[in-house]
Design goal:
- The protein is α+β, with helices and mostly antiparallel strands.
- It has a single domain, classed as Multidrug-efflux Transporter 1 Regulator Bmrr, Chain A (Alpha-Beta Barrel).
- The protein is about 20% helix and about 40% strand.
- The protein starts with 5 loop residues before the first strand and ends with a strand.
Length: about 180
C-alpha cells in the first residue's frame, strides 16, 4: 500500500461540476483508470470536454485539474449504477454547454489526499488512495461522506513534487 505524500482538509465549494458522464454497474469491470474499461474510454475521448471548459475561462475556478467525479445518484439495489463524470469544478451557475452534464456541489469540507504514482497503476492503486484518504479524514475531527461524491484528480502537470502525482478529493463533515 502507498502512503499519502500530502493531505489537507479544507472548505470546498460551492461549485458546479461540468463534464460528460457515463454510468456503469459498480465493481471491478469498470476499472477507474484513465486507460481501461468504460471509464478509460471516456478519458480517451475527453479532449473536447476540456477544450470546451477551457473556453469558459470567465467561469473557471482555482480547481484547474482534470477530474473524474464519482456519484451515486442512480445507485439502487437492482442496477447499482455508479456515475463517472470527466470534467472540472466551475463557478456556481456556470452555463452548461450542449451535450454536457453537471452536478451542483454544495459548500462542504473536503479531504484532499495526494500520492505519487502512475494513474494507470490499476484498481488496487485507486482503492489504496481512497482508503488512505478516508483514514486521514477519520483521524481528524471529521468523517468521510464519500457516498455523496468523491473525485479522482489528475493534475495537468504530470511531474509534481518530483514525480507523477494523483489525488483524491472526498467530501466530509465535522463529527
Amino acid at each position: 500500500m502507498k502512503t499519502l505524500e500530502k493531505f489537507e482538509l479544507t472548505p470546498f465549494g460551492p461549485y458546479r461540476f461540468i463534464g460528460k458522464s457515463v454510468y456503469a454497474r459498480a465493481g471491478g469491470f469498470c476499472v477507474t483508470t484513465q486507460q481501461s474499461g468504460i471509464f478509460g474510454g471516456l478519458w480517451k475521448n475527453s479532449g473536447w470536454i476540456f477544450e470546451t471548459l477551457d473556453g469558459l475561462s470567465e467561469h473557471a475556478t482555482d480547481e484547474i485539474h482534470d477530474i473524474a467525479l464519482l456519484t451515486w445518484e442512480k445507485f439502487e439495489d437492482k442496477s447499482q449504477l455508479l456515475g463517472y463524470t470527466v470534467g472540472r469544478f466551475m463557478k456556481p451557475g456556470t452555463p452548461v454547454p450542449a451535450g454536457m452534464d453537471y452536478f451542483d456541489i454544495e459548500a462542504t469540507f473536503v479531504g484532499k489526499g495526494w500520492v505519487k504514482s502512475d494513474p494507470d497503476a490499476g484498481l488496487d492503486f485507486h482503492l489504496d488512495i481512497e482508503q488512505l484518504t478516508k483514514d486521514a479524514i477519520n483521524q481528524q475531527n471529521y468523517y468521510e461522506t464519500g457516498w455523496k461524491w468523491f473525485a479522482e484528480v489528475y493534475p495537468q502537470k504530470s511531474a509534481v513534487h518530483g514525480g507523477p502525482l494523483m489525488g483524491l478529493y472526498m467530501s466530509c463533515a465535522k463529527k
